[in-house]
Automatic annotation (TrEMBL), chain A:
Segments passing through the bilayer: 88-106, 112-129, 309-332, 361-384, 954-974, 986-1006, 1036-1057, 1077-1094, 1106-1123, 1143-1166
All residue ranges annotated as the P-type ATPase N-terminal domain in the record: 46-111
Record GO biological process: phospholipid translocation
Protein name: Phospholipid-transporting ATPase
Organism: Corchorus capsularis
Keyword Nuclease included in the entry's annotation: no
Record's bilayer topology term: Multi-pass membrane protein
Subcellular location, record wording: Membrane
UniProtKB/TrEMBL annotation, chain B:
Domain of life: Eukaryota
UniProt subcellular location: Membrane
Family membership noted in the UniProt record: Belongs to the CDC50/LEM3 family.
GO cellular component: endoplasmic reticulum; Golgi apparatus; plasma membrane
Entry keyword annotation includes Transmembrane helix: yes
InterPro entries xref list: CDC50/LEM3_fam (IPR005045)
Presence of the UniProt keyword DNA repair in the record: no
Annotated keywords: Membrane, Transmembrane, Transmembrane helix
Record-given protein name: ALA-interacting subunit
Membrane spanning stretches: 34-55, 291-313
């Protein structure tokens, strides 16, 4: 191990590549913060390499295991029970169960307690299972291993959870840090390490961490055998960017520590072979864990509305109970005293005490509340929970949402938001890792005014295809519109032919693509060849560029590409190609591209860069050395980077790459040869969403360089505030009079299927906002790439102007922003064009404050797409919250990194991308997807289904409980409100638990209004959810009324038919038991048939559950009746002996079922026939989809259903089609003109006219 | 063998796969106008004949209902009926003359009907002990029988309010001087006789208290044979109810006059309840009740009317099946 590390150390020290950073600001001066050590809040003491000292107080710190579980073995029962009984309904039933113990209740104890136990038990089981999964996930994390120092310089594998503060660990490349570490040394000699903090803040560029000079020597395993040091530092806190502490090491000298020595948990070691570090904070003390908040429990809209329904039913219950108790007391006072058979006088029956009517009435009231409890669907919650778990299971199992690459599938992490997926209106998306793969591809370039890499974009292709389709469609139209068509016919013909000529010009590549029909496919094939390089142009490939004109510019261009960077090569065995690592993925793409073009960057030392160049004159590969004189670093304010190199001939070049505007400003007058052509290429590239960089160079005379170099060196060695400025000025001096070479376009590679997905989502009516921490240019690029932005859109930019920003006056900033917003709003009210809003993070900060907020949101909501760039994680969450509050719409936030956690937790639904390695977003999310594109299916198919299912299910639940519960009340009217129940206790217990639960669960899990294909073909169907057509109050009230009607029909029909006459041929009359059983049978039949009427999708499961439930009732009745009479009581043999053989029983059942279903049936008949809903029509269309005519109709409707959206791929295609046709129209006119003006034409026309 | 089992296995797997992919074969009924009309017509054509048959059965039942509670109180007591019924010294004999209007075929069921009598009152219904009825005095925890549980510190068998308030009017029927044969056996459910009322349980200490409720029981006859009690103890569901008293096992011809000698013992006067005597034949549907038949006919004819109305509406406002103009995107384009 030691040998390999030494070998690696021979390599370049990265830090030295940066000329600016060779003079590091001194860390030895004690700053004010350092004096805080030892004070409260800064009292932590860590004994490095002596973890055993941390086993005892006062230095006992927690182990490094984390737990995100809600409960543990001890707290589960009380906490889970508390959670359960926080629900109104459950608490009510608990009350009922308690009362049943004191003989107040009208039912037996078991029949009250059993369902409650069942319901609560299932819910708690679900909680336990979910928590168990969290536990397993924690276990997985906690059981990762890391090399930790054991003793005598030996490092052994240790589980993460067993790490203690003070442990020395060795973390290898691409591993996560197990806890917050103090960096001691790294594989690089100067103790630098590169850290990826994607999981913490979402930033993709690597961060440099440096160890203290004092600990540099600790870079071997053996060094740690007797290493001892003490760290005194701040207490655990969630602040990611600060750290205060000092290290006492070797003869008690104290070194101050800064955040740059601290490696945070959940970040990852990159580009560095290994590091050594000491654990400072472990487990729950780490900054990452401190930063994470418990995900709030979210409830869906339907569930919140369901609470209101419960309140409504509860008030109904109170009303009915009140009526009962008043009725009871009136009877008691006036009539009951005369009923001698009750022996009321002189008895102290507390319910019927004529001398204390008020008390009796009160007790009756309580009893009635329990009695009519069936109005409140006790099992609703549990059924919904069961259904949601099953729904979640089906979502998880969907193979259409399985990602083969990562072998992950969609996961519904919390199942209680399934139906909310069907009501989403706004999608707030993160960029990096969510839409893009954080991987750059070299796509196109323009060298010396010539664009390479194909000019036809997918949009163009799709547009041409669209035109073809329209053209064919026109062909099929009937002839009576002939005149009109013939005109457009020409246009289309024209466009198509024109397009094919264009294709011919562009060469093989395009035709290949069109022949295969799927450009994406070819692209995917290509990708497998070279990662990061998606370029094909025969003029440049295979060294063909040597035949081109401007050869010197082309070679220079490639040199810029190969020399102006900070990357380093890595060996790669296969066919002499190298792999590269650099600070940004763009640079890697450039290096790979230049290697492909024949300028292989193969070695670099501190001062020399070696290229293997293909020499066009000798047709040979030659190795050339370039002396690296200076490197002018890239920074976000400079937006450019330059290197000054000296070639073998001693010529000095300044090679510069940077943002086009910056470069164009610094061109020499004779360097603008290609400016015009390049600019037009630039705009094309930008429209396609590529990130562009301009390349330029200049030759520097040796004398000039020397002069400049002294100034620059002086600036570099200056200490103090003016250093930056001096450096800036120095670089300005040399970066001028550039010669433009060209531009390159790299694609921030979108994840698979993202544009299509966004397109579908746009058609389904979602608004998509892009929130990214990246800079504005990148954000806009991606906006274009995923069709959120288009050239013909009116873009509003909200930014703080430089002057205002520098003054830092809040008032001025506010005024500025307000002004911008108002002017945008004015523009908006005047114009029809689609609008896009691009907001900068700083501007957003102002815009989200107090009074500006409303105006801003008004503007933002009316824009077709909104892009927020440079936003902090906190702002993301804030935007989400404000949008949620302001618009009242359901929001979905999707992201992949820890920086999205706030947003994910704040949104109504949080979705995490699980494809990446980071888990924070996933842990905080409600759903995790391996790929962004699965969002389409998740929302449009599963969301739509789940919404419908849950809505139907809740309504049906309300219906069935009202229908059943009210019969109990009606019966009270006939028993002088004495509280007697018509049904046996066990019938009632069975009602919700067994006899009606399965069909409703089947409905909730399997119901489909339309199949998944249809959902995807008609994304507009999704709008049912956001418009909430299935769960409006009118519907809810309708179902309650339906329940009332049903209960009336059932009750009245039964008592009028079965009383007082005999119901059997042998003269027996129906007593309370027979009447109860018959009425109850009618209820079971009716509610189960009702659900059959609601169901529109019958698989065998539905059939079994519906008809099985009815059958189960008879089976139950027979079995229960067969039990000995002391168990079955009044139900003894009630079916076999009494009601079963009676024809009247069966006839009553038939009549009652038909009559009580009739109102609903008439309602749906009228609705379906005269006011059909979207899904009804689609069902009908699907139903008659047999012949070709209907197929045609199907396709036509599919086309029609595509809403004219402002964003998305198809919108762009539309725009492109429009511009094509306009262009062609113009062209046609000009041709026509030229033809008509031509002498031949004239002569022909004149001859024909004469 | 293995092939078959493997095949079965894969089949099961695919079924499960189809389930998880929510692609199980399903029937998706669509309510088309044709279906609607068919359903309504079908309902109509089923329900009307059924209703007519039912109605016919109900009409074939001959029923004689005679209220006697008021008539059987002698003139002098008509103001204070309660004191009459509570005075044991006054004979309670009463005679009714029932005219048979139509031929009644044996068996003719004899019912007594009580109105405004809340046998379904909760306090009343619960006041019994099924265990005691089955096991007799052996069974001692009879607290549910409150307030008729003990008398003179002796348990009462059968205990409870229901038994205590046993109906005790008696009827005898005479036609043309000859006593009609009334069978008072088999009026209770067989299961009650055999499984709920003990064969070796004899009434004990019954109606011995200060408050006498209803009828007395012969202490030498076991409860399982006391069919009047068994019938009475099957509490009725509604405050107006009939209970079987016995069956006349001779046919009655039209214009026959049946003389009923009854003992008007039972007190319904204190709470204004009515007592009626009912003689009724039965059909396969039971007693006479036109409601069911009428309901069937009504529902059937309503469905026919609905079918017609719907047909007319459908013809007038015909919506083509799967009419795409109703789809939201098309609708939007119509409205602009």
């Amino acid at each position: 191990m030691g040998v390999t590390s030494k070998k690696k150390k021979g390599k370049v020290r990265w830090s030295n590549l940066y000329s600016f950073s060779c003079f590091r600001p001194s860390t030895l001066e004690p700053s004010a913060a350092q004096e805080l050590i030892g004070q409260p809040g800064f009292s932590r003491v860590v004994f490095c390499n002596e973890p055993h000292l941390h086993r005892k107080k006062p230095y006992k710190y927690p182990y490094n295991n984390i737990s995100t579980t809600k409960y543990n073995f001890l707290t589960f029962l009380p906490r889970a029970l508390f959670e359960q009984f926080r629900r109104v309904a459950n608490f009510y039933f608990l009350l009922g169960a308690v009362l049943s113990l004191v003989s107040l209740a009208p039912f037996s104890r078991a029949s009250l307690i059993a369902p409650l136990l069942f319901v609560v038990g299932i819910s708690m089981l679900k909680e336990a299972v979910e928590d168990w999964h969290r536990f397993l996930q924690d276990l997985d994390v906690n059981n990762r291993t890391v090399k930790a120092h054991d003793s005598n310089g030996v490092f052994v594998d240790k589980l993460w959870k067993e790490l203690r503060v003070g442990d020395v660990v060795k973390v290898n490349k691409d591993e996560y840090f197990p806890s917050d570490l103090l960096l001691l040394s790294s594989s690089y000699e100067d103790g630098v390490s590169y850290v990826e903090t994607l999981n913490l803040d979402g930033e993709t560029n690597l961060k440099v961490k440096r160890c203290l000079e004092a600990t540099l020597c600790l870079n071997e395993d053996e060094e740690f055998s007797d290493f001892k040091a003490t760290i005194k530092c701040e207490d655990p806190n969630p602040n990611l960017y600060t750290f205060v502490g000092n290290l006492e090491f070797e003869n008690e000298s104290s070194y101050p520590l800064s955040p740059s020595q601290v490696l945070l948990r959940d970040s990852k070691l990159r580009n560095t072979d290994y590091i050594y570090g000491v654990v400072i904070f472990s487990g729950h003390d780490t900054k990452a864990v401190r930063n994470s908040t418990r995900s709030p429990s979210k409830r869906s809209r339907i569930e919140r509305k369901m609470d209101k329904i419960i309140y409504l039913l509860f008030s109904m219950l109170l009303f009915v109970s009140l009526v009962s108790s008043i009725g009871s007391s009136l009877f008691l006072k006036h009539d009951m005293v005369d009923w001698w058979y009750l022996q009321l006088q002189g008895n102290d029956d507390k319910f019927f005490n004529p001398s204390k009517p008020v008390k009796s009435a009160f007790l009756q009231f309580i009893r009635a509340i329990i009695l009519y409890g069936y109005l409140i669907p006790i099992s609703l919650y549990v059924s919904i929970e069961v259904v949601k778990v099953l729904q979640a299971m089906l979502i998880n199992k969907d193979v259409e949402m399985y990602d083969e690459v990562t072998c992950k599938s969609v996961k519904a992490r919390t199942s209680n938001l399934n139906e909310e997926l069907g009501q989403v209106e706004m999608i707030l998306s993160d960029k990096t890792g969510t839409l893009t793969c954080n991987q750059m591809e070299f796509r196109k370039c323009s060298i010396a005014g010539v664009s390479y890499g194909g000019a036809v974009t997918e949009v163009d292709l799709a547009a041409s295809r669209r035109i073809n389709v329209d053209f064919e469609a026109c062909d099929e139209l009937s002839t009576d519109e002939f005149d009109q068509i013939s005109q457009s016919y020409e246009v289309f013909e024209f466009s198509v032919s024109d397009f094919s000529t264009q294709k011919a010009v562009l060469g093989r590549e395009v035709t290949d693509n069109t022949n295969k029909g799927n450009p994406r496919l070819t692209k995917a094939e290509h990708k497998s060849v070279i990662k990061g390089f998606n370029f094909r142009d025969d003029r440049l490939m295979n060294k063909n560029w040597i035949h081109g004109s401007n050869l010197s510019d082309i070679t220079m261009f490639f040199r810029v590409m190969a020399l102006c960077h900070t990357g380093i090569p890595l060996e790669d065995d296969k066919n002499n190609k190298l792999r590269y690592e650099a600070e940004s993925p763009e640079e890697v793409a450039f290096l790979i591209a230049s290697q492909e073009f024949g300028f292989q960057f193969c070695r670099r030392t501190q001062s020399v860069i070696v290229l293997k160049e293909f020499d066009p004159y000798s047709n040979m590969e030659v190795e050339r050395e370039y002396k690296l004189l200076n490197l002018l670093e890239f920074s976000s304010s400079r937006k450019r980077m330059s290197v000054i190199v000296c070639n073998e001939e001693g010529q000095i070049f300044l090679l510069c790459k940077g943002a086009d505007s910056i470069i164009f400003d610094r061109l020499a007058d004779n360097g603008r040869t290609y400016e015009q052509a390049t600019t037009s290429h630039l705009s094309n590239y930008a429209q396609d969403g590529f990130r562009t960089l301009a390349f330029a160079y200049r030759t520097i005379e040796a004398a000039e360089y020397e002069r400049w170099n002294t100034i620059f060196t002086q600036a570099k060695t200056t200490v103090g505030h003016e250093r930056e400025q001096l450096l800036e000025e120095a670089s300005e001096m040399i970066e001028k009079d550039l010669m433009l070479l060209g531009v390159v376009a790299v694609e921030d590679k979108l994840q698979k299927g993202v544009p299509e997905c966004i397109d579908k989502l746009a058609q389904a009516g979602f608004k998509i906002w892009l929130l990214t921490g990246d800079k504005r240019e990148t954000a806009i690029n991606i906006g274009f790439a995923c069709s959120l932005l288009r050239q013909d859109m009116k873009q509003f930019h909200l930014t703080l102007s430089r002057e205002v920003e520098s003054k830092k006056q809040v008032k001025a900033m506010k005024k500025d922003i307000l002004h911008q917003i108002e002017s945008s709003l004015r523009v908006m009210s005047n114009k029809e064009a689609p609008f896009a809003l691009v907001v900068d993070g700083k501007a957003l900060e102002i815009a989200l404050e107090g009074d500006v907020k409303d105006k801003f949101l008004q503007l933002a909501v009316n824009c077709a797409s909104v892009i927020c760039c440079r936003v902090s994680p906190k702002q993301k969450a804030l935007i989400t919250r404000l949008v949620k509050q302001y618009t009242g719409r359901t929001t979905l936030a999707i992201g992949d990194g820890a920086n999205d956690v706030g947003m994910i937790q704040e949104a109504d639904i949080g979705v995490g991308i699980s494809g990446m390695e980071g888990m924070q977003a996933v842990m905080a999310s409600d759903f995790s997807l391996p790929q962004f594109r699965f969002l389409e299916r998740l929302l449009i198919v599963h969301g739509h289904w789940c919404y419908q299912r849950i809505a139907k299910m809740v309504l049906y639940f309300v219906y069935k409980n009202v229908a059943f519960g009210l019969t109990l009340f009606y019966y009270e009217l006939y028993t002088s409100f004495s509280g007697e129940v018509l049904y046996d206790d066990w019938y009632m217990t069975m009602f919700n638990v067994m006899l009606t639960s399965l069909p409703v669960i089947a409905l909730g899990v399997l119901e489909q209004d339309v199949s998944s294909d249809v959902c995807l073909q008609f994304p507009a169907l999704y709008q049912q959810g956001p418009r909430n057509v299935h769960f409006r109050w009118s519907r809810i009230i309708g179902w309650i009324l339906n329940g009332v009607v049903t209960s009336l029909v059932i009750f009245l029909a039964n008592i009028y038919i079965l009383s007082p006459n005999a119901f059997r041929q042998n003269g027996h009359v129906a007593d309370i038991n027979s009447l109860g059983a018959i009425t109850y049978t009618c209820i079971i039949w009716t509610v189960n048939c009702q659900i059959a009427l609601i169901t529109s999708h019958f698989t065998w499961i539905q059939h079994v559950s519906i008809w099985g439930s009815i059958l189960l009732w008879y089976i139950f009745l027979v079995l229960y009746g067969a039990l000995p009479p002391d168990t079955s009581g009044n139900a003894f043999k009630v079916f076999i002996e009494a009601i079963g053989p009676a024809p009247l029983f069966w006839m009553v059942t038939l009549l009652v079922v038909v009559v009580s279903l009739l109102p609903y049936f008439i309602h749906i008949v009228i609705q379906r026939t005269f006011y059909p809903m979207d899904d009804h029509i689609i069902q009908e269309m699907k139903h008659c989809l047999r012949d070709d005519h209907h197929n045609e109709m199907w396709l036509r409707e599919q086309r029609n259903s595509k809403r004219s959206t402002h964003i998305g791929f198809s919108a762009r295609v539309d725009a492109q089609v429009l511009s094509f046709t306009q262009q062609l129209h113009r062209k046609k006119k000009s041709i026509y003109k030229s033809v008509t003006n031509s002498p031949i034409y004239r002569s022909m026309t004149s001859s024909s006219s004469s | 063998m293995t092939d078959a089992s493997r095949e079965e296995h894969t089949q099961r797997e695919t079924a499960f796969y189809l389930f998880t992919q929510q692609r199980l074969p399903a029937c998706k009924p669509v309510l088309t106008p044709a279906w609607v009309i068919t359903i309504f017509l079908f309902t109509g054509f089923i329900f009307i004949p059924v209703g007519l048959v039912t109605l016919r059965a109900s009409r074939s039942v001959v029923e004689i209902v005679e209220r006697y509670d008021a008539e059987c109180v002698p003139e002098p007591f008509s103001i204070d009926k309660v004191s009459y019924i509570q005075d044991d010294s006054i004979p309670k004999n009463c005679t009714l003359f029932l005219k048979v209007n139509k031929y009644m075929k044996a068996p003719i069921h004899i019912y007594y009907q009580l109105d405004n009598y809340y046998q379904n009152h909760r306090r009343y219904v619960k006041s019994r002990s099924d265990q005691q009825l089955l096991h007799g005095q052996k069974y001692q925890s009879t607290s549910s029988c409150q307030p008729v549980e003990f008398n003179n510190d002796q348990p009462i068998v059968p205990c409870g309010l229901i038994a205590w308030s046993l109906f005790n009017d008696t009827f005898s029927f005479i036609r043309e001087r000859a006593k009609l044969k009334v069978n008072r056996k088999n009026i209770a459910w067989k299961s009650d006789r055999e499984h709920k009322f003990g064969k070796n349980v004899y009434p004990f200490n019954f109606q011995n208290g200060t408050l006498i409720g209803g009828g007395k029981l012969n202490p030498r006859i076991p409860l399982s044979d006391q069919e009047d009690l068994i019938v009475w103890m099957r509490t009725s569901a509604l405050p107006s109810f009939r209970k079987l008293y016995g069956r006349i096992e001779e046919d009655l011809d039209a214009d026959d006059v049946v003389v009923v000698h009854l003992m008007n013992n039972y007190n319904t006067y204190s709470f204004g309840g009515k007592k009626k005597l009912v003689l009724s034949t039965s059909s396969w549907l039971g007693g006479r009740n036109d409601f069911l038949g009428l309901a069937y006919v009504f529902v059937g004819s309503s469905s026919l009317i609905l079918a017609l109305v719907f047909l007319l509406l459908h013809l007038k406002y015909r919506r083509p099946y799967g009419d795409t103009s109703y789809l939201p995107w098309n609708r939007k384009s119509l409205s602009g």
